[in-house]
């Protein structure tokens, strides 16, 4: 080791010893540390409040329309015109398409001509019948000939009825050549274009019409949740069902529960429920996946706190309660219903109590805090030893008693 290095080490050690022995240094350091330990911990607090909270049952669901119709032709022929646009909202009875009506018009005229011919034959047979009746009375012809003529008249009357049926059939086919909407709803993509020959036996159909208003959502709930739902329905209550998007973030629509299914699925232990929605804005689309939330009960006037204030221990759930003297106490609580950001406290807190919302990770029983409640003035600590929260309007809100 060089001489310069030895000299540096000696100087460094002597400097540390002098600094350590300097008067007042350790005293000041200890005072600073103690001051930091005694400083209150800044936290954000919130007040427990009274309010209402709902008891919900959530299930996965699918939008199922009340009516979906595959429109098909009832007669064979050439599709000559399409009267709708894809995606249109149509009403029951609206004209959708036309099939060439000329073959059916020709068949109608032919049936009417045959009817006129057979009506003339019937009139002639009736005239002969009247003549034979007079001749039989005069014993000019045998009665057998009269009976035969009566049978001829009855036969011609039957032919007339058959001709009339042919006319009605031709008129019906002529009506079927105009394809109208069998129900109201949203029309889908066109399956057949004008110019094609369509047949009544075709399985593909012409177009699909789906009812949009109202519509339904079919969702499942656990079988253990069914008794509470049935009890409410038997009492005549209309249970509200909210539909949410896939992420359970945005509410799509609100409806009412219609009915549960008539059996429980033994493989999953669930039962299907159907809810009806007016769907005026058509936000619910057929076969859309939704999350359904069934409101079974609404609790009124219960103590509520943000769910973020709850701390979980190994055997209990607790909160940090801020006392009027700005000390904190660990308070065990019993949690009831949790809905969204709110939690019901059934025991352990009263409305108006201040609890720590953020900053609880470094708190200990009896520690001092500087609690800031949003929307309230800073609290003025009460004398040490006070327990519980000050009444509203006193020190908790920064006002002197």
Quick summary of this structure?
With 401 residues, this protein is an alpha+beta fold. The protein is built from five helices and 21 strands.
Structure description:
- The chain has helices at 3-21, 25-38, 102-137, 143-176, 226-234, and strands spanning 41-47, 49-65, 68-71, 77-82, 89-90, 95-99, 178-180, 185-187, 197-198, 207-210, 215-222, 240-244, 251-260, 270-277, 289-306, 311-312, 317-322, 328-339, 342-347, 354-358, 369-372.
- The protein has 401 residues and is an alpha+beta fold.
- It has a six-stranded antiparallel β-barrel.
- Strand 12 (240-244) and strand 13 (251-260) form a beta hairpin.
- Helix 3 packs antiparallel against helix 4 (143-176).
- The protein is elongated and about 140 Å long.
Strand residue content: 25-35%
Strand order of the largest sheet: 2-11-14-13-12-15
**End-to-end CA span:** 75 Å
Order of helices and strands: HHEEEEEEHHEEEEEHEEEEEEEEEE
Architecture blueprint of SSEs:
Blueprint: H1 3-21, H2 25-38, E1 41-47, E2 49-65, E3 68-71, E4 77-82, E5 89-90, E6 95-99, H3 102-137, H4 143-176, E7 178-180, E8 185-187, E9 197-198, E10 207-210, E11 215-222, H5 226-234, E12 240-244, E13 251-260, E14 270-277, E15 289-306, E16 311-312, E17 317-322, E18 328-339, E19 342-347, E20 354-358, E21 369-372
Parallel strand pairs: 1-21
Antiparallel strand pairs: 1-20, 2-11, 2-15, 3-10, 4-6, 4-9, 5-8, 6-7, 8-10, 11-14, 12-13, 12-15, 13-14, 15-19, 16-17, 17-18, 18-19
Helix pairs in contact: 3-4
């Amino acid at each position: 080791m060089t001489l310069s290095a030895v000299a540096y080490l000696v100087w460094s050690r002597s400097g540390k010893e002098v600094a350590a022995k300097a008067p007042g240094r350790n005293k000041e350091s200890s005072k600073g540390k103690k001051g930091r330990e005694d400083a209150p911990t800044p936290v954000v607090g919130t007040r427990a409040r009274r309010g209402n909270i709902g008891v919900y049952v959530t299930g996965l669901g699918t939008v199922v329309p009340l009516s979906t119709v595959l429109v098909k032709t009832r007669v064979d022929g050439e599709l000559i015109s399409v009267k709708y646009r894809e995606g249109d909202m149509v009403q029951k009875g609206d004209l959708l398409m036309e099939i060439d009506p000329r073959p059916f018009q020709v068949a109608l005229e032919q049936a009417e001509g045959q009817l006129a011919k057979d009506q003339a034959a019937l009139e002639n047979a009736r005239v002969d019948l009247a003549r034979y009746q007079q001749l039989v009375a005069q014993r000019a012809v045998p009665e057998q000939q009269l009976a035969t003529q009566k049978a001829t008249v009855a036969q011609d009357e039957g032919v007339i009825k058959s001709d009339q049926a042919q006319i009605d059939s031709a008129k019906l086919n002529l009506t079927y050549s105009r394809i109208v909407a069998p129900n109201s709803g949203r029309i889908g993509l066109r399956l057949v274009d004008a110019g094609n020959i369509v047949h009544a036996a075709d399985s593909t159909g012409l177009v699909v019409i789906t009812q949009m208003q109202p519509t339904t959502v079919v969702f499942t709930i656990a079988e253990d949740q069914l008794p509470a739902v049935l009890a409410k329905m038997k009492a005549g209550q209309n249970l509200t069902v909210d539909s949410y998007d896939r992420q359970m973030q945005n509410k799509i629509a609100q409806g009412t529960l219609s009915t549960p299914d008539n059996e429980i699925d033994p493989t999953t232990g669930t039962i299907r429920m159907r809810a009806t929605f007016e769907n005026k804005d058509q936000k619910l689309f057929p076969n859309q996946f939704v999350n359904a939330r069934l409101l079974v009960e609404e609790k009124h006037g219960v103590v509520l706190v943000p769910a973020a204030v709850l701390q979980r221990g190994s055997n209990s759930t607790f909160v940090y309660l801020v006392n009027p003297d700005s000390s904190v106490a660990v308070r065990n609580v019993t949690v009831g219903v949790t809905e969204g950001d709110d939690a019901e406290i059934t025991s352990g807190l009263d409305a108006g109590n201040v609890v720590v919302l953020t900053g609880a990770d470094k708190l200990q029983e009896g520690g001092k805090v500087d609690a800031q409640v949003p929307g309230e003035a800073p609290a003025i600590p009460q004398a040490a030893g006070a327990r519980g929260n000050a009444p509203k309007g006193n020190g908790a809100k920064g006002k002197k008693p």
